[in-house]
Amino acid sequence: MMRVVRIANVEHIPLGPAAAVPGWTGGEVHRTRQPIIPEGESDFFNASIVNFQTGAQTGWHRHSSDQILVITTGNGTVADETHEVEVGVGDVVQIKAGENHWHGATANGYMGHITITASD
User: Where in this chain does the record put each Cupin type-2 domain (predicted)?
Assistant: First the structure.
């Protein structure tokens, strides 16, 4: 059955302290997740909005499937082991399965993105 999600009505779930961007001296930074296609709702995809406070990033990690990021607010950085790219609203990033990477806000601003991965 079709489902419509109004992002403004999706609960923000705190993710706890996040990794800070290199050189950050502003104290603890945080992220929230807004599940828009929660685990178990689709046989194929998970999707959430992740909201990064100023200076917050994910830290290095990998996924078992490709990950798609759609930047929805602010500006940020996406990096793999050889590249670091500044991204902004409207940019779409594909990160291949197994690729070591991180993403998050800049030291001077916040960032939000929709993340889409395959259901495991």
Answer: 49-108
- What would the DSSP string read from start to end of 52-118? EPTTEE--SB--SS-EEEEEEEEEEEEEESS-EEEEETT-EEEE-TT--EEEEE-TT--EEEEEEEE
DSSP 21: P
Per-residue pLDDT tens digits of the chain, which is 120 residues long: 888 999 899 999 999 888 888 778 778 899 999 999 988 899 999 999 999 999 999 989 999 999 999 999 999 999 999 999 999 999 999 999 999 999 999 989 899 999 999 987
Q: Largest alpha-carbon pair distance within the chain?
A: 48
For residue 11, give both structure tokens: 């609960």
C-alpha of 105 from chain center? 9
Task: For the chain, list the domains and their CATH numbers.
Answer: 11-118 (2.60.120.10)
Residue 46 structure tokens: 């998970």
